[in-house]
Amino acid sequence: MARPVIRRLSDHVVDLIAAGEVVERPAAALKELVENALDAGATRIDVALRGGGRDVIEVVDNGRGMDAEELPLAVQRHCTSKLPDDNLTAIQTLGFRGEALPSIGASARLSLVSRTAEAESAWELSVEGGVMKGPFPAAGSVGTRVVVRDLFFATPARRKFLKTVRVESGHAESVMRRIALSAPECAFRVTFDGREIMNLPPQDMPGRVASILAVPEDNLLHLDEQRGAMRLSGYLCGPGESRRTGAGQFMLVNHRPVVDPVLRTAVRVAYRPVIERGRFPIFLLHLQVPLERVDVNVHPAKTELRFADEAEVRGFVIGAVGRALARGAGEGGGIQADLSVIGRHAGQEAAQLSQSHASASQQRLDTIPARDFGFGPSVRRLTPPQGGRSQHGEGVAEGQRSYTTAFAGLDERAMAVQPDSSEPQTVPPFYPLGVPIGQIHATYILSIAPNGDLILTDQHAAHERLTHERLRARFAEGAITAQALLMPEVVDLPHDESIALLQCAEELAGLGLEIEAFGSGSILVRSLPAPLSGGDVAGLLRDVAEELAQMPDLAARQTDSLESRFEAIMARMACHGSIRAGRILKQEEMEALLRGMEQHPRANTCPHGRPTWLRLDRAGLETLFGRVK
To answer: Which ranges carry the DNA mismatch repair protein S5 domain (predicted)?
Structure first.
């Protein structure tokens, strides 16, 4: 057999190989063309696809355009206007590699018509299977019109493996949604086979997010935090509004749409305590980091990137999202359902936040104007306990005793009091969940919010969440009782996983999981956390070790394997230890439960991710009674 000889591939074959990396499907070609338009300063972009993009992709923009000298360079590899020098560490444009148009021209029939503001006419250039024709004078307005026909006709194998029109159209729509979120100041119109899919005017960011995520703007929770040179901003939906897939999750890094596993993991960890298993949160997050701290030149498609310090980014995102979700129940509105607004906002540990919520509530008392709740004579007001005066006016000594016995686990600061005063209090407090006025079916607490809305609270789900918070606080403090094993168990692990596990031995011991080295690659387990006793010791250890080995900067308590087991146990314990549906509550008990929810983060959902309260506003009532104009 003859020895193979190294030879240089032809430029055409090289272009075809590059095309397979940059343009893997019609949506990828569409992404590159629209990003070029944005880099050219376009304020309006029209997109038309036929056959899912296999037959025709047309992108028309009103950007700066190109002249006759630039057009031939635009379709040659590694020619770009977006890198003024050879510095790849300060990239501020969406594109920069100079590969998209040459790759499309090598595998499809490409036509460009472009005109600058100074030119008297437009110029047209075409590329078919890598062969260029033009440029020729043509008619056209300022900007660029790009038409791609018969994508992958020059590479039949690639065209053969494209999916159905519906699937390819779905990918193209996802691309346009991500890009539209990254450029709210630009108008977009998108049609598929003559059917309008998207028509967005220039908008502010909240309006664009509401349009793309298909949620009311009032239901969006704003996030804006900064740590050093990093800034995280964006909009979140509460855990009560989630989806079965991750289609409602969008992330930007320095205005670039990305699909980044580091950011996805961080958001998942932040939402994990409050969202139902198997559901996905809805959000847009925009992370801004110094250009030299992120590398976007790791993949031809430019949807992946690398951070200089992934652990720092992950920790910042987890904390920021957690704090954005960390509000007491009822604060900031919720999610519109049939007759309700589902409570939202969750967050960090209750022990850290209940004091801040109490002080914030105290400060609000001096600024909230008096409101007439319009209660009838059948609703009796509560009296203040000894040593203080209720924010509702009259004495609640009996209510305090009832609260202590029935809801001993609630934070006593839930029954917030004002200092003694010789004058009766005339300024009602700002209680987002309102004043309870009764029960429905001995299961749901009915209350009136400060703005007159009706609130329905599931008493079992609400108390279940507050009981769960106490257990979580113990877990966060490492105050978990260890259950010694009668016979220590030996678990064999790969070398890297055993090392990762032993490095966290001290932290695991604080959680009740005592381990030590037992030969090469083996771990001796002496005790388990008491709530997890009787479980699969080897399975638990292997799962935790695998996660720690894959993400060495992750704390042991943050691993899915350990926390999910604790969450399941704590949720079960909270369920059994909470008041049940069907129990008749006293006025004071209902009051204590609502105030406790307002003090604790994550109280908008139960430990299983279901809402604890719903709101019926005036618009909902008028719809029910046919009073909508």
So the answer is: 212-326
